[in-house]
Amino acid sequence: MDWKLEDDRPIWLQLSQQLTRRIITGIYPPGSRLPPVRELAAEAGVNPNTMQRALAQLEQDGLAKADRTAGRLVTQDTGVLDRVRSGEAKVVVRQYLDAMAALGYSREQAAALLQEEELL
After folding, report:
1. Partner of 104 at 20 to 30 A CA spacing, among 33, 40, 56, 118?
2. What per-residue confidence (pLDDT) applies to 120?
């Protein structure tokens, strides 16, 4: 998966969000070891300190934990993963509804369009 970085938000926050997405989609499964900071930083083309801050945010959010011998591990707590996945889904839904409103569609019309696409 490519790293997509924009100028509109802090880089560490974007990295944290992209790592979160990788965790909740199973790219980094529950209980798995996350790649080392330097490896992730090199892959993303950022300073290791920036990546370290992103990983610290994952720990703060409960998605990862540091283990002295194994490095950082993805949480195995399915409740945390489900909560974060649900939060991400709500963001996507809000973005969809906002985009549809900008096109002049009501919430009901936007929902009807989704239902139409489901039937195809």
Report:
1. 118
2. 56
Q: How many angstroms separate the Cα of 114 from the Cα of each of 3, 64, 74, 90, 107?
A: 29, 34, 33, 15, 11
Residue written as tokens 């969809």?
Answer: 96
Query: How far apart (Å, rounded) are the C-alpha atoms in residues 26 and 95?
Result: 23
- 80-101 residue pLDDT tens: 999 999 999 999 999 999 999 9
The pair of structure tokens assigned to 104 is: 């002049």
> Residue 17's pLDDT is what?
95
C-beta of residue 12 within 8 angstroms of C-beta of residue 37 = no
Q: Which residues of 69-96 are buried (b: 16+ CB within 10 A; e: fewer)?
A: eeebbbbeeeebbeebbeeeeeeeeeee
Assign residue 71 a region (left: φ > 0; alpha: ψ between -120 and 50; beta: otherwise). Answer: left
SS3 29: coil
